[in-house]
Design a protein that fits this description.
This protein has four helices and four strands. By secondary structure, it is of the alpha+beta class. It has a single domain, classed as Nucleotidyltransferase, domain 5 (2-Layer Sandwich). Strands 3-2-1-4 form a four-stranded mixed sheet, with helices on both faces. The termini are far apart.
Length: 116
Amino acid sequence: MSRNNLRIRRHKRVRSKIEGTSARPRMAVFRSLSNLYVQVIDDSTQKTLVSADLREVFKGKKVENNIGGAEKLGKLIGKKCKEAKISEIVFDRGGYNYHGRISALAEAARGEGLKF
């Protein structure tokens, strides 16, 4: 099996156990080779409440797809969640290891006041 197929299997296993509600929406992370995407989703109504990606952070500049960029994205998503009056979330790491860019994003979002 390829690495991506194994990641998808892990993600399905995790998604069977966690679900975002209107009280605690799910923060889903997708990591590509060139970008990092984050969505805050209410699974009960199947709506995306807040979203952001690295292109939005580095408007017009070269996108830094590294730990520094992930920290900036975490701060941005934290601020957007505050504006949308979201304080508690469920973190869905998308089958990725909680390491590097994923952990930097989560810690920066926690620094902005999100609880998960």
